[in-house]
Protein 1
Amino acid sequence: MKILNLYAGIGGNRSLWGNKHEITSVEHNESISKIYQDLYPNDKVIVADAHLYLQNNFKDYDFIWSSPPCPTHSRMRFKAYCNGKGKALFPDMKLYEEILFLQQYTKNTNIKYVVENVKGWYKPLVEPQNMGRHYIWSNFKIPNIKIKSNSTGNNKGMTLQKKMQLKGYDIKEWHNYKGDKRTLINNCVEKQIGIEILNAIK
């Protein structure tokens, strides 16, 4: 398949997909895209706005995976505000723009899609499928995937190295990255969810 992987990050969802598909990944952060390219040298990596790339190129792909940024939707971020550790933020509606866009524009096509986000602090505006710590919106049947989450975002006592080990990454590979490595790790979709969803496409 021709696969479009949007908001790719370091490719947590893509970890077990292998190399038999033609994968294009879009990530706006150049430093993060370099880590992704090192991990998946066979993929085409584009440094761009994933939201606009989806709008302009969705017809070119068989399967689209989109994981828009989650901080303004997450329960953890809202809890931080309630504890006096953050400011009040409007939910970023690009998430629902993409869900509605894909629902409508993939009708009567063979294009399959998944939009993934964390479980939010409000009732979803479009009904999702619940999967671990994730909400999933799609246009094909996905079995309920029950796995033990490797998310360690709430474990303050865990070292970065342990977090990376749980997610299957080697900290040495990222020695040139100056950003927040914890955020990169915590943003990774569980790899088992990624491969189970890919395998559900008929």
Protein 2
Amino acid sequence: MAQVTLRDITLTRGTTAILRDVSFTVEAGEFCVLVGPSGCGKSTLLRLIAGLDDDASGEILIDGQSVVHVPAARRNVAMVFQGYALYPHMTVFDNIAFALRRAKVPTAEIQTRVQTAAKILQLGDCLQRKPASLSGGQRQRVAIGRAIVKKPKVFLFDEPLSNLDASLRAETRFEIAKLHRDMGSASMLYVTHDQVEAMTLADRIVLLRPVLQSPGLGSIVQVGRPMDLYHRPANLFAARFIGTPGMNLFETRVAGLTDQGVAFELHGQRCHAAVSNAGLAVGDLITVGIRPEHVQVSLDSSHAGDAAPNRVLASVTHIEALGEHSILFTNLLGGPAEALLAKTTDESVRVGDSVVLHLPASAMHVFGVNGGAQVR
């Protein structure tokens, strides 16, 4: 097992800031996913850990030992790239064995390692085939096989599924999760912009943001277990990025403070969020949010009105039917047009219907000024 620690990694190329103050630890045997929008430095971090780039300041430690000046070949890590980079003239066996032969590993051990990797990845029937005859998912598994046979302490995956179609992504995602379970002694760092991959694969997520769009702020937004980021986003950036569809967010002002939380108005309706009101004052500008699946939808408008807390009237403008549920696109009524998304299993709702949206106080999020930290 290998622990990977990054301390104060900062990288500027020319006048462009790529990474700023990146510090986190991947525990031995952990599956850590780096996620964030394009340009936030996810792949660059992997290349720095692998030793393919060496132009950042800060420290990188593997098993407690600094590897900043250690050549890539001696870091005991293996990287799986977005492209398969297979040799088209070689068989699957030879592709997987290539690095071992270059390292002059004995033939018998090469045979054993390749067969073991092929069994783990279900490639046993493909070893004598060439890459052109394989599916995209099989080619990616061959690329992963090349990493497995090196017996690294750390696996680095750089968006390995981005070239696959939806069904193959799901299949290969399962294979990678199974690989982690089967090889529990190896630490894995995985880069993706796909939230489904991040949420389903990770023991822990590191959410990054582009530093060019965040003057004065570091690259890391939040680190935590997937459901921690989902249910308790640290700030507006995390709230917007994590979740599909995204969280509904509205700017408003504090209308009152009680022992039960924070009161505010939304389109003329009195609403309440069951959160701590520490640090807030009446009149403060805040952003309130609620995830679409927590919005309760009713076609019965008889319960809406000025006296009904946390209920707003809306008109359905579009519906995305997804099978087990539908996404309702609505416009709030009684004020400037403002959109709100809701998930529902009610198949009777139609475009043009007027609906009542109940926003449970316990499901509301409150964020401070300028997208700052969530009020707890």
